[in-house]
Every structure is written in C-alpha cells, then in structure tokens.
Specification:
Layout lengths: L1 H8 L1 H20 L12 E6 L2 H15 L4 E3 L8 E6 L7 H19 L18
Antiparallel strand pairs: 1-3, 2-3
Helix pairs in contact: 1-2, 2-4
Length: 130
C-alpha cells in the first residue's frame, strides 16, 4: 500500500521508470535484439541457446558486470531458445541503462563465439571442508 501511495504522490517516479523502460527496450531493439512484444517494464531478451549457456551468461552478467537478470528456458520457451529477463526500475539511471545495452552487445558476441558453451558452473555454495 505504501508503494501505491508513493506512486500517487510522486508521479515523477513513474515517469522516471517509463523513461528507463523505453530507453532500455528501444536501445536493445536498435542493437538488433529480439525482445518480443512487451508492454511492461519486464523486458525479455531472446537468444538461441540452452540452459548451460544461459546459466553461464547470468553468472557472467552478475559477477563481471553487476547486472542481475533472470533466465527462462524450456519448457517455458521452446527448446534451444533462451530468454533473459531484465526489469529496469526508477532507481536506475540512464547511464545504467546504456551500460546494460552495451554489455548485452558484448555477451551476444561472446555467446556467438561459443564462450558460454562450457559446462555450468558449480553452484553448490555449501562449504564441504571439514
């Protein structure tokens, strides 16, 4: 409820959100990315690939570029399709948006070059040392 009140009393927050959303979505389209048809801040970015590549991309984005996104794979999307979901917010800057677009251009090249084809990273975070 507090968030709804905040949006009602501060319309500039909603305006900033949609400025960021439009900049991200238009920028990705201009760079040749398939983002499908979206009418919300949730921005899907489609690639050819599978769970291994997607997991490696998400780890690379998080660990090396400080960009968080979620991965969606089969059976939600067709086999050999990988969807990464970005959600810009009003707290992001246009600099953040432009950096994200540039980084996505870099990961697209890395994906096409096979750099994400290695096995998935070990995500077991439990310390097994005795």
């Amino acid at each position: 409820m507090k968030r709804l009140e905040l949006l009602k009393t501060h319309p500039e927050i909603r305006e900033r959100l949609w400025k960021n959303v439009n900049a991200l979505q238009n920028g990705l389209r201009e760079k040749g990315f398939n983002i499908g048809q979206t009418e919300s801040p949730v921005t899907p970015v489609y690639f050819s690939g599978g769970p291994n590549q997607g997991t490696n991309i998400v780890v690379d984005l998080r660990e090396n570029y400080n960009i968080f996104c979620s991965i969606v794979t089969y059976p939600v999307v067709p086999k050999d399709v990988l969807m990464l979901r970005l959600i810009p917010t009003a707290a992001h800057s246009l600099e953040d948006v432009n950096l994200t677009i540039e980084v996505f251009s870099q990961i697209k090249k890395k994906l096409e070059a096979g750099e994400y084809d290695k096995p998935m990273p070990n995500m077991n975070l439990v310390n097994k040392s005795k």
